[in-house]
Amino acid sequence: MSFQQRIVQKIETVKQLMQKDGLDGLIITNSIDQFYLLDFYFYPGEAVLLLSGTDLLCITRQLYVEPLKQRFPFMRIDGQDKGMNAAVVAESARMGLARVGFDAEKENYMAGSLFKTAGFVEAAGYISLLRQVKDEHEVAVLRESNRIAFETYEYVKPLIKEGVTEFEVAAEIERFMRMKGASAPSFSTIVAFGENAANPHHVTSFKKLQNNEAVLIDYGCIYNGYCSDITRSWWYGDQEPEEYTKIWNIVDKARRTGIATQAPGVSAQKVDAAARAIITAAGYGEYFTHRLGHGVGLEIHEEPNNDQTSQAILKKGNVLTVEPGIYLTGKFGVRLEDTTVITETGADILTRK
Q1: Inter-CA distances, 147 with 21, 133, 176, 177, 234, Å
Q2: What is the pTM assigned to this prediction?
Q3: In angstroms, rounded to a whole number, what is the distance separating the alpha carbons of residues 323 and 333?
Q4: CATH 3.40.50.790, applies to 136-349
Q5: Considering only CA atoms, which of 263, 254, 229 is closest in space to residue 341?
Q6: What is the pLDDT of residues 196-227, one digit of tens each?
Q7: CA distances, 264 to each of 9, 216, 267, 341 (Å)
Q8: Domain 3-131 is of which CATH architecture?
Q9: How many whole angstroms separate alpha carbon 62 and alpha carbon 335?
Q10: CA 331 to chain centre
């Protein structure tokens, strides 16, 4: 399928959802949703899209007008550097649109108030819903993004030696990912040594690695707009404590169990419960302090989630992490994370070559 065909197909799918809800117009202001629809990145606040049954209008800064005309000959483009939200309200009236929707969860107070005053209605998050199920093109990009992350692990692990700081390792991780084609890290890289590994969201610091300490690295990259996420944990030195070995193996079994439980039609709650049961049965349930995993795509945290409270039923094309952990405050922690895609029969690990 060509680039133009993919874009048109996405637009038509959104239109069908609009029509079911009786909308003849939809405002799209979120830059990530805009990227999903057009495969073109605007910085936040630089564009507003108005999708109707017969038209797609983009009100954006003048500097984008010519590039967009060349890329999207089917799209109407209006160059304005200010007052984009007011302009889209005026254009909706000029077009005679009777029922225009907007995603209230993604609007700031000022924009939401303006749209409601104009008579626009709060609509379902159509694009958020569509983003949960990745198509073949998206899965291919996510596979490459996660392959880069895995290759980075293989590259950086031998470089992590006594005396290196967490910051130095994080910098090398991010440098290598950029060298492999990533545009940015997908979140703030976590490198944790020793007792810092017992903090699930440790803030990378100047701590130096000492001999016989735990190491935990959690990072990812953005490649062609799509995120990756991987966590690896190991013991540095030749005097690995028995308890560290024990919890590493428990966490690894939970990781493998969680991945094996995933399949179309399986509840996300069941996936979380299956992995969590392994850790609980081993006596460490209270030390697994977060959900099993989260969706990944254009953002590092998306729906659906492998979570104890999630209502999601997994579908082919969902991309989720499985990342169980055990954290012993003041000692060390272990987390092992892979990003997976739900297939027709199960789940495939993306964080690999």
Answers
A1: 40, 20, 13, 10, 20
A2: 0.96
A3: 13
A4: no
A5: 263
A6: 999 999 999 999 999 999 999 999 999 999 99
A7: 24, 31, 9, 10
A8: 3-Layer(aba) Sandwich (3.40)
A9: 47
A10: 30
